[in-house]
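Below is how a single chain appears once it has passed through the pipeline. First comes the sequence as given, then the structure the pipeline wrote out for it. We keep one example in the README because the format questions we get most often are answered faster by looking than by reading.
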Amino acid sequence: MHYVLLYVLFMVTFTQLLRYSQRRGATVLPVCAVNYVVAAILSTGALAVFGWRGLLVDQWPAAALGAVNGVLYVVTLVVLLASYRLVAVGMEVAHHVADDARRFLLWLVRGVTAVLHAEQDAAVD
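Resulting structure:
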């Protein structure tokens, strides 16, 4: 649950800052490179502080997931930059991501509520 909220927060923030840097005339690739490097430094710092045991995951699957996530970041970035060139979608992306997150949270709450009601009904029988 926290992951979804953090994802929405960081995605909206990154998208808006990227769009702002474009309007100010900054080259987009260095802006994205800074974002990537900061994320790598924060991840390495968290790993150094907490270690693998603090993460409660095995090393190799986590490293593989991190590598796949890095590749997906670059692919997503290419698509995002192409969409910026075609149409101004900064606010649209933020709106749709937030709307999707809201729908997911509602679905999750309704599902949990339904399970709790089913358990209560089973306990009564």
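The chain has one domain: 2-124.

See the next section for the split statistics.
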